[in-house]
Amino acid sequence: MLGVRVLEVSRVAVQPSPYPVPDKAIELSFLDSMFVDFPHLQFIYLFTNTTNASFPAIIGSLKSSLTRILPFFYPFAGKLTYIPSATRAVIDCSASAISEGITFIEAESDLNIHSIAKDEVPELESFLQLVPKVTVPELPTVVLAVQVTRFLKGGVALGIAVHHTVGDGKGILHFFEAWASICRTGSVPPGFVPVHDRAVIKYPGGDEIAKEFARKLAPTLPRITELNHSLQERVHLTRRTFLLDRATIKSWKKQDIHLSPSTFISISARVVATVASVRGLTNDDGPFLAGFPVDCRSRWNPPIDDNYTGNCSSPCFARMTASEVAGPDGFIRACAALKEAVIKSTKEPLVGCEGWPDRSLKFTERVVMFSGSVGHKFCETDFGWGTPDRFKLAMLNRDGVVVMVKGKEEGTVEVAVTLHAQHMDAFAKMFLPPFSRI
User: What molecular function terms (GO) are annotated for this protein (predicted)?
Assistant: First the structure.
C-alpha cells in the first residue's frame, strides 16, 4: 500500500433528540451566498500521539458523538440545494435531505504522520487523501463529510470537508468545539445553544443582494464551476507553515511603536511586505491589496449572538502602493494601511457590500488574501485523546492565500502561506529564520 487505503464507508445518522430539527430549508443570507460556487473547505486535524485510545475506540466515540451533536447543528447534516423558482441556493434541512446521514470514511495509511505534520512541503496528492473527496459537478451536494485515517506507524488524522455556505471560521469552529466536547465529556459546553436562523442577518435589500451575488459568483447554477484549481494547475503552488512564537510577534510589534499594531496587523504586515518583495514589485507603482475577513457579530445593529454559526464576516481590503510596500519600509507602510482598513471596517463593516463580488474576482499578483484568525482555537480542539499537534487547511488553491490560527502554545500563531514555488524559498528566508518553520 502506498498512501491511503479506505477501509469502510458508512453513514452517521442524525439521532432523535429533544432538540427539534426544523423540517425545512435554510435560505442563505447574502453573506452565505458569496460562497455557493466555492469548493468544500478541507481541514485536517493531525494527532501524532494517540496511545491512550485504540483506533476502534476513536472511531466509536467520534461516530456516537457526531450523531448526538448533529441535532444541534442540523444545517451541517443538510444539503446545499438549488431552487430554480427562487433562482437561489438553500441548505435543505428537510427530513428527506438529512435522512441519509453524514458520510463517514475509515482509512489507514503507511505514510509518516510526522512528515505530514512538520514537513514544509507535504506531497500534495498524499495530503489530499486524508480528507473526504467531495466532487460537486452540480447541486445538490452534502454540507459535511468526515474521514478518519489510522497511520500504521502511529497517529491519527481527522479530515473534514465542509461547505463554506454553512458558516464562517467562527461558526465552523463552534461546531468542532461542541462535537469535541460531547466526544470528550459526553455533553456540550454549558449554556451553549447554536443559532442558525439567517433572519438575524437584517440588511436593507439583503435578499436581492443575495440573488445578485449568486448571479455574479455562481452564474451556472445548479452546475458548479468551483473556483479551486485542478491538481495540474496546483502543481505550481507550494505552501509552508510558520510557527510564530510570542517573542517573534512582540519584536515585530516593536518595529512600529507609533501605531502599536495588534498581533493580526503585525503578522499580516510582515507577510504583505515579504510577498511584495519576493514578487519583485519594488518598481511597480500599481496598487497592492491585502484582503481579510472581519467578524460582524458584535458590530451589527443590533449585535448578533456570538453563537451564530452562519457566515457573519465582511471582506475588508487594505490598499497600498506595490513599490512602497515592497521597499525598505514596507512593513511600516503595510501596518499603517492595515490598521486604517481595520478601523474603517469596525465603523462600517458592510459599506459597499453590493460591490463585493466585483472586488473578489480581481485576484492578481498584487493581492494577498488572509483567512482564519489569530484567535481561532482549532489547535485546542480535544476530542478526548489530547489536542491535535497540527491543524491544517488541506487545499492549495490560490497564489497569495494565507491562513492563520492560534497556535497550540499560548501566545503562538501558526501561519500557512501558499505561493508559486518560484517565490517560496525567498519568502521563507526573508520572513523568518529557519528554526521557526514547521
Answer: acyltransferase activity, transferring groups other than amino-acyl groups
271-299: pLDDT as tens digits: 999 999 999 999 999 999 999 998 999 98
Is pLDDT at 356 greater than 60 in this prediction?
yes
* Helical packing angle, 263-278 and 330-347, nearest 10°: 130
Q: How far apart are CA 106 and CA 10, in angstroms?
A: 8
Q: What percent of the chain has pLDDT over 90?
A: 50
Per domain, the residue ranges of the chain are: 4-217, 231-376+395-436
Element (H, E) at 30: helix 30-33
- Look at domain 4-217 and name its CATH class: alpha beta
Per DSSP, 328 falls in state T
pLDDT band at 237 (very low <50, low <70, confident <90, very high): confident
The tally of CA atoms less than 13 A away on the side-chain side of residue 412 is 17
- Do 158 and 116 meet the contact criterion of CB atoms below 8 Å apart? no
Q: How far apart are the first and last CA of the chain?
A: 27
pLDDT, tens digit, 9 for 90 and up, residues 69-105: 999 999 999 999 998 887 789 999 998 899 889 999 9
Q: Looking at per-residue confidence, does 393 or 148 come out higher?
A: 148
Alpha-carbon distance of 304 to 298, in angstroms, equals: 6
Fold of 231-376+395-436: Chloramphenicol Acetyltransferase (3.30.559)
